[in-house]
Amino acid sequence: MKFDKDGNVTSFERKKMELYQELSLQARDLRFQHLTSITARNNNIIIRIEALKAVVTPNCLLVLDFRGLGLERWLVQELAPQLSGDHGALATHSLPFEFRALEAILQHRVNTLQARLNEVQPVILDILESLVDPKLLSADRSKLHILLQNSKNLSELETDIKVFKDSLLKILDEDEMIEELCVTKWTDPCAFEESSLGIDHAEEMELLLENYFMQAEELGNTTRELKGLIDDSESIIFINLDSHRNVMMRLNLQLTMGTFSLSLFGLMGVAFGMNLESTFEEDPKVFWLVTGFMFLGSGLIWRRLLSFLGRHLEPTVPLQIPNVWKRNQMNSKGAELKSGIR
Questions:
Q1: Cα 38 from Cα 213, distance rounded (Å)
Q2: Neighbours of 195 (CB within 10 A)
Q3: Which of 66, 53, 52, 62 is nearest to 22 (CA)?
Q4: What pLDDT, in 10s, does the model give residues 292-321?
Q5: How do strand 52-56 and strand 44-49 relate by DSSP bridges?
């Protein structure tokens, strides 16, 4: 698909060798080995951003192998008006054509990354809000499965943002590459002088790339914050589950102690239940005395065991901090707060 300076679109098929000869390029220049790359070859800008493969010349924009990639709507409805300057959002209409073409492609990439982030972010926040509930006794497996899928999508998005940033940063670090991207400067000096009007094209190209680099940096920061929020929420979920688990373990331990106390004094009942004769079975009051003694002893043993458990499980009393230390701590915190405000 070919776009000229006025936004007119024509679609055609051409053999690779004919395209190489027309653009004065080698076969290796259009292999697109990297997923994201922006390079200049023989006064042409070769762009590969994910599935989008394009070549920007001083007079037109060529989009290669666009069928079946879901780019038709963007190419026809959005890209053509941007290249012709109808949108008014691009301030590069007075600059050469390669500025408009490059900015339109970079804007499309940033919008795509932003759309992916907007799709994942609200789902992750809603799931995390429901999972960090302190009253939650067990985590919902369906929500955890959805969170896992979105976490993978978030990791892939973070990787794509990093690759996009690195490709822009590679150009920004080399002034020669920025100069090479200004292809009109080398192909049509007259048009370059007419469009300059005191404008440094290399500086404008650098500002253009820095603008989208900063937007990608903001998207990367948002993805890192989301991943950090997932890690923090995971810690909170584990803390809540451990707290409930500790309560159940303590209850189980208390019941075990009660069973031990009853079993200990239940030996008296075993002794009296043997088929041996003694003088105690003749007295009607002995049964009630032995039974009461068994329950009273079991209760006392259980009480002592609970007090022992409480002394070893309850947190120790914090040390009393002298007033001088407290005053020094308050002064240091106040100094940190003032320095932060400053």
A1: 13
A2: 17
A3: 62
A4: 777 787 778 778 777 777 766 655 444 454
A5: antiparallel
